[in-house]
UniProtKB/TrEMBL annotation:
Family statement drawn from the similarity comment of this UniProt entry: Belongs to the transferase hexapeptide repeat family.
UniProt-recorded name of the protein: Acetyltransferase
Signal peptide residues on this chain, from the entry's feature table: none
Lineage of the species this protein comes from: Bacteria, Bacillati, Actinomycetota, Actinomycetes, Pseudonocardiales
Organism: Lentzea waywayandensis
A GO MF term: galactoside O-acetyltransferase activity
Transmembrane segments annotated in the record for this chain: none
Domain Maltose/galactoside acetyltransferase intervals: 5-53
Enzyme type, top EC level: transferase
UniProtKB keywords: Acyltransferase, Repeat, Transferase
Domain of life assignment: Bacteria
EC number, as in UniProt: 2.3.1.-
Amino acid sequence: MITEKQKMMTGRLYKDSDPELVAERLAAQQLVEEFNATRSGSVISRLFGSIGEGSWVMPRFQCDYGYQIHMGSNSFLNYDAILMDCATITIGDDVSIGPRAQLLTALHPVEDHEARRQRFETAAPIVIGDNVWLGGGVIVCAGVTIGADAVIGAGSVVTRDVPPRVLAVGNPCKVIREL
């Protein structure tokens, strides 16, 4: 029998109230609280699936599980970030993410009202390419890939893939020009 965690990890409909997932979120929250209190890089390396050399995360940081977050080398995650990692979040090398950014992999049933009522959800990965800059307050939605060397303006809501080497802004986020 397939577990709710296995369903989550493969992008299928799963119940977030599953005891295994609840326990894993609670364990992650303990590490998050420890990190936010101490700002210790060793806590982040225990929490994240991987983190590259020279990367750092500022507190107040929040996530669901931690182990699905992979951050490359020399990248920076500013204050008050929220990374909902029900699916994999991959952050490339040399990425700068502004304060209060949100990377949200969770999806909820839109048409199936009963499934939503019963707290079923799915998730889709987020990929942030190398040398990307996300301005403050940017929201990146589930399933989005942002190409290398792209710049996303502050406050943008990224609902679709963004190609490499562009400036994109707005809600919904749209490409303004090539870089």
